[in-house]
């Protein structure tokens, strides 16, 4: 009997665990240099699983940048975003909050995804 390999299923949502992630192009040098070690996303992008390796692509051009390993995924309220998060994002706090408000104007539930660089191109 022939069986097809299955993609891991996320226990959080019963959805397929993502194997890629996109970032704005201006952020990719920070990821490749390991200066940016978290990303803040909404629930639709919160299904990454700790321990999985993920390919990073630019949002604008879909160009592969590097590989990262997901370390953790944790809920994060917008009002709780502070200097620690800004430092991990490698952005000033006011710029980080402005960017999050621009990307997620309705302030949905947010998640902090911690990661480490595996390999850069």
Automatic annotation (TrEMBL):
PANTHER family: UCP029143 FAMILY PROTEIN. SUPFAM superfamilies: PUA domain-like. NCBIfam families: PRK04980.1 (NF003443). Residues 21-119 form the ASCH domain. The gene is yqfB. It is an enzyme of class 3 (hydrolase). The lineage of its organism: Bacteria, Pseudomonadati, Pseudomonadota, Gammaproteobacteria, Alteromonadales. The active site is at residues 36, 39, 89. It catalyses: N(4)-acetylcytosine + H2O = cytosine + acetate + H(+); N(4)-acetyl-2'-deoxycytidine + H2O = 2'-deoxycytidine + acetate + H(+); N(4)-acetylcytidine + H2O = cytidine + acetate + H(+). This is N(4)-acetylcytidine amidohydrolase. Its EC number is 3.5.1.135. Gene3D superfamilies: Hypothetical protein. InterPro entries: AC4CH, ASCH_domain, PUA-like_sf. Catalyzes the hydrolysis of N(4)-acetylcytidine (ac4C). The keyword Hydrolase applies. Pfam families: ASCH (PF04266). GO terms for molecular function: hydrolase activity, acting on carbon-nitrogen (but not peptide) bonds, in linear amidines. Keywords: Hydrolase. It comes from Shewanella gaetbuli. Belongs to the N(4)-acetylcytidine amidohydrolase family. One of its GO terms (cellular component) is cytosol.
């Amino acid at each position: 009997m022939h069986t097809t390999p299955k993609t891991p299923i996320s226990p959080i949502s019963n959805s397929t665990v993502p194997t890629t992630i996109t970032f704005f192009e201006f952020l990719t040098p920070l990821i490749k240099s390991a200066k940016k070690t978290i990303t803040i996303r909404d629930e639709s992008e919160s299904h990454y699983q700790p321990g999985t390796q993920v390919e990073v692509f630019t949002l604008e051009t879909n160009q592969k940048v590097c590989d990262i390993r997901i370390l953790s995924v944790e809920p994060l309220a917008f009002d709780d975003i502070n200097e620690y998060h800004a430092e991990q994002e490698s952005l000033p706090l006011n710029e980080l909050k402005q960017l999050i408000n621009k990307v997620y104007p309705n302030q949905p539930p947010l998640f902090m995804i911690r990661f480490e660089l595996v390999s850069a191109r």
